[in-house]
Amino acid sequence: MKKQYIILFFLLVSKIGFGQAYLLPNEEILFSFETKKGKKMVLAKDKNDKYIIYRFGTSKKIELEYPEKNKESWNKFTFAYYSRGGGVQNLAMDLDKVIFEIGNYEYTIYQSYYSEENDFDTGIEIYNKATKKNSTITGIYSSIKGHLTNFRDNGLLKIDNDRAYE
Hints:
The chain is mainly beta and 166 residues long. It is built from 1 helix and 11 strands; from the N terminus they run αβββββββββββ. The protein has one domain.
């Protein structure tokens, strides 16, 4: 019995001391996915809508957490979307993006579908405004939790559909 308590203690200490949480107990996932390089992106919110938070990294190290957890955090994110139905003959597509900026960098979390190729994509595009260079972190579509289309009518983020094509 004593041995079981010791094992449990070390498991708890290693989780607290060496792991970092993608999701806190008072949060829920809005959208998340794993990347092809073994990292994870989580867009979460406080269960009482006190804040929205972006986290990226591994379970051992969160590389980026943005913004501060407060009511103003909602104003740091913008949602944009475009949808065209009609199937393959109309080149149907569905584009959904959550956009935020940190300094000279613009981050775009995206989820898209193109009927012509029956192509489903997700990931993060990072645009460096100073160098005018883009980089993309590709997500694994089958690992998605949540859906960006929920932002179309949940009222959580401001919507700017002029940014859907950027």
